[in-house]
């Protein structure tokens, strides 16, 4: 059934002009097959797009015409009732409007011209806003818990603001509840593409099949490999091209047939990916961990707080180590060495040892204060994986063990629980790596210790 639905969806895509062929008038019953094909990547995002042939970096691999993009303007202009009702709700944000418009199409059922697209969308998402109280607490780290709670409050507020409009539009009751709002809002957050005329973006059928790849630091360094071709408005490897009135997608690197073709849509930490898209990466070059600092430290520097972090390999950021170096200097001497600290240079060997000791001790204190250790989190993850692949007595015994250790494992929320444990395990690993980094640096600066 799923394969049949996918085939119908790809035929529908071809009928409205979506194509992975560079020849715009190339007739085909499916919108894919020339450059791309739908495939499954269990270890890398699930359903995604594979190269149907060898692809060269910068090559156009998919075009989605303007007529196939789902935008607020399009949905409003096609529905006079929605257009008229919105006049009375001028304070709704662009995201709220697109979410309501999406639910409005869902309310129409088969009579919606977008029914084929809506039918293949996920029925639920795992963004932080969908986490329940237990799943939020499973994150364990205060900053992550605060981020999740803020996301839930934001969705509740926006749902309450939009509910009178949804009632006025006579939505089915099931489409006015908070769960339905979370689905619509998560669809907008996780699946829309950037367009210059609407901050909510657009839903891009087939284009939203691409899975995410983090941008690399050396991307586009070579003039020969430059994908932008002078168009600074284009995203890393996709964007709306006014010249052809289409959303165009390009190969971000060379691919051989069968490779997963990926899309970079921004630089995100794992917590940000979880908040906005509902997934995280096991190997995220842009991941980082934040640790609480002494209040005085924030006043010593002019760097923003989000620059004071520990990178994925455990190394303190330039801003963090510079700030701690200055803080570790006696107050009477800080003014005279401030320029040295903020240029990234060592103030003295003794100062470096003190700075590294403080960072390592802060990480160590945090790790010992969490309800579970890195090793215990790894064990929980192994057991969750086993639950997902077993049944009967073995599944029951694993669930019993986990619940005795305060880990609830309802099948309906096992994915979100796993995401929470994966995130906190990665956070703690970064802190552990930072302790090792600081210890090595301290030994180099003071080998007598």
Question: Explain this structure to me?
Answer:
- This protein has 449 residues and is mainly alpha-helical.
- It is 46% helix and 10% strand.
- It has helices at residues 2-15, 72-77, 80-86, 94-108, 115-119, 133-137, 142-168, 178-191, 270-276, 295-300, 318-327, 334-342, 349-369, 374-388, 392-404, 414-445; strands at 36-41, 46-51, 60-65, 192-195, 198-203, 211-212, 238-241, 246-250, 262-263, 288-289, 310-311.
- The strands form five sheets. It has a three-stranded antiparallel β-sheet, with no helix packed on it. Strands 1-2 form a two-stranded antiparallel sheet. The chain has a two-stranded antiparallel sheet with strand order 4-5.
- The N and C termini lie far apart (67 Å).
Low-confidence region ranges = 217-235
Q: How do the SSEs run, as a string of H and E? A: HEEEHHHHHHHEEEEEEHEHEHHHHHH
The radius of gyration computed from the alpha-carbon positions, rounded to a whole number of angstroms, is 25 Å
How are strands sequenced across the largest beta sheet?
3-8-7
Q: Helix- and strand-based class?
A: mainly alpha
Largest sheet: 3 strands, antiparallel
SS elements, strand count: 11
Terminal CA distance? 67 Å
Content of β-strand = 5-15%
